[in-house]
Model the fold of this input.
Amino acid sequence: MKEKRGVLYKYARLCKRCKRRMCNRRSIKNRNDQTIFLEVADYNIWANDIVLSWINNITDEQWKKHVVSSFNSIAETVLHITSAETIWLERLNKAESPVWLQSTFKGTRNEVIGLWKNASAGLKKIC
Done:
């Protein structure tokens, strides 16, 4: 994990020229698209693992509890994120009819978490 962090954290530095995060102009210009995509996919997996470790520690009541936010619960938020990653994976794999998972999914908490992990891993396998 430490090796991944070394790769991932370089994107969190501030650019000296424009003072923005994620700029990294000097290092990106000498790399190809595949390398950049793989690093972003690694970052995505790393960030999702942090969120999922938190999600695995909440109760079912917290998972389903109504909250005032973009989505009505943590469960709906996770399903939305999973749907977004899944549909991008389907599009990148040139699926004929990508399906928005959120409109059809009726599974359990563990199933949506499994789908999220699979989608994240799938995005990395594209390269």
Notes: Residues 1-30 form one domain. Residues 51 and 78 are 10 Å apart (CA to CA). The chain has two domains: 1-30, 32-125. The radius of gyration is 17 Å.
